[in-house]
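Notes to self after the call with IL:
- keep both proteins in one doc
- input above output, always
- annotate only the second one for now

Protein 1:
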Amino acid sequence: MNGSILIVDDEKGQREILTMILRGEGYETSEASCVPEAQLLLGKREFDLILTDLKMQGQSGLDLLEQVMADDPQQCVIMMTAHGTVDSAVGAMKRGAFDYLEKPLERDNLLLTLRRAFERITLVRENRVLQKRVAAIERIPSIIGDHPKMKEVYRIITKIAATTSTVLIYGESGTGKELVARAIHDRSARKDQPFMAINCAAIPETLIESELFGHEKGSFTGASAREIGILEAANGGTVFLDEIGEMNVSMQAKLLRAIQEKEIRRVGGKVNLPLDVRIISATNRDLEQEIKKGSFREDLFYRLNVIRIVLPPLRERGSDVATLADFFVGKYRDASGIAVEGIAKPALKLLMNYTWPGNVRQLESVIERAVLMAEGTIIQPDDLPTEITAVVAVGGVVPFELPPEGINFDEMEKALIFKAMERADWVIGKAAPLLGLSYKTLQYRLEKHGIEKPEKRGR
């Protein structure tokens, strides 16, 4: 089923023709011959769309529109009008109607208008879901914590949310960049408008322009219909561009123009469309270094970097681990119905001593697994994955027994360093904190053990 439509028209023949056409296209239809009858049906169930005649005996389509908009301003209504009342139909659009159709109706134009309407309905529904998630923003785990670095993040969010300035969020993967963007949107004057997010790294270069700006039918191979882009769909709201550092330079230029000119043009289109969105972007790269390399435009950087927010990795706010872990225990206890009450001190110590390369997202995953795997009502060390229990804890406590024959310490050190470098993608600055070492100390030990990236060593 493509969706449910309420047809309101005092002409029986017109209702029957519309019902035949729309049911043939897979829509579910109901009929009403007047406004009171329509209201009766609307009181019993919800309809995705209302297709109503403007002029009817008794109350008019405008009366119905006003009643419907009073109950639900997001309800999609399309007016049907005779040629002589087009001005009234245009007035109805100003009062909230999605569009109007002139009688006699043309089948193709009717179906095209309905497709456009249902595109909008889908966006509205997605936005409602997001709004519900944003409404619980104070309980979102990635912005839970009392560490001073997080308090600074909260301060900035509160300070700048009401502005329209662009925001650039820096942070490692899993630190909660999108959740911070949603918190900014929720505290702004745009909170009732769409929040749309796009991951620039997840979309092929050949498609990202269409994703952002949309495209017209036939503008490229496979463009079988017009598509609305993220920027157009979010007009009046906020767009979150995650991993902005992955966007190619050519696309950066087009984004810069859209921000400067406050207008966009769909791919293959001929008309510029006004743009009113707040841009919040995020990256885990050093964009100033990318500028020096020539892979990021300096002018775009300064457009995006009006407000900068730096999210600390979880390893730099270890005092928040216990608070976050306790929150996740409650979340997954409630979701699963498993009676887990808390975390044993030895298990909590392991969690607090771990370096969390995947940040809050990884901690959530670990706690979810622990709740499901726990043998009793308290999470014990054995309920944690080996990635947590196999790491040497701070203070020299080793969570495994020393074998009777002893160990080769150099080989163990070499193996730990190699594993840390692999996890950090062979970036010394990222691997050093995983081992509790300084940059220079790890660099020295890499040279001492002759540890090199495998492909380099193989040449």
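Protein 2 (the one to annotate):
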Amino acid sequence: MDKSLAEWLTGQARQLRFCLFLLPLLVSACISPVAYGPIPHSDYVANDRCRPGARPEEQFADKPYFAVISRLPDCRTEPVVLLSQRSDTVRYARFGTPADMEITDAKGKVKTEERVPLALTNNQQWWDDLAAETEKHDGRILLYVHGYKETFFTSARDSAQIARLSGLEIPIVHYSWPSQGEFLKYAADETNMYYNERQFRSFLTRLAQQPWTKEIILVAHSLGVRLAIPAIEFVDRNSSNADSSNISNIILASPDIDRQDFERDIAETVLTMRRVNNNRRITVYVSAKDRALGLSYNFHGYPRLGRPDCFNPFEAASLREQGYPERCYAAKTTYDTEPEKSGLTIIDTTAVSRGQSGHSDYLRSALACSDFVAVVNGTESKSSKRKATRLLHVFELVPDPDGAEPDDLAVCRRKPD
């Protein structure tokens, strides 16, 4: 038997054993429905806290960030709590960085917990406040869409970290869809993500078409990428301006989206030559150590954009024979006439990956955090830690062999100053 084929079969056997090990857990998770809960959903939203009126701006002094929420809120007590259930109504809120808060539960018991300060706002007031803040900062906005296994607390905390990490003082908008926040609820998260497609694309369309919106920096993580890309395509098709190029800087972190689907569709929609020439670009962060996307690959049967697995064993064998790592990336778009700028850049963080899952290097690895900040700020051309690869649009982040190990926590500022 050919050696490369034998090695491929061995790898497939390892994956099969791993899947069989997880099968009881995955099956139990997949066949267990998301519980409705012991309380009618209408009771959660009956209180007027779910329908706030206009408030003075100073009431949001400790809540500088903006949120768009499709989670079901529990408005029975103060503060309002966001649940993992769906809501047919999109609500708007302001929030701050995590802090210790005294919480009174439904039984009247007071306890101290770390929470994200949150206040639901009047819809029109939210848009007016966002317009005012955006106009103060040359029409620039950063929009963050979270991924799988997130609660509002964890995803809002990440939004606040992105704000601190980037150093930008522009408005930060966080779109929160009802991820279950549990490892074994991937199928439920995927279902809720698809359910949110219409809500998110309606919001993004409205945001992109505001006269005061000049530039949207869109950061999408994991499963959230499958919300973001179709929504951008929808805005492009239905934009009232020439090319909706104000959605200009698109950053996909550990994207859980079919790599071939991305390759096939992206040239015809998101990265057309005209939009690339108008400074639209996509930066993708990938890692071969991303265990979460490894599971997603096994679950879906095809490689994910955020993990450079080789689906074709002959391509993997060819790379090995040439002395290259067995990593396969999304192909760069081919144009009839090449644009003046480069629209797609892939950053491989395998060598600097951090965390048990390797699924959030852009917020956990010092070198990845630094590169991410440069991309957000539009200064990536000055990044000195990128190493060229065999592909012109793919770069690796590699540690300095003679340098000290960077302090990931300090560089990424996981906690507020």
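Annotation: The chain has two domains: 1-32, 38-412. The longest helix spans residues 3-31.
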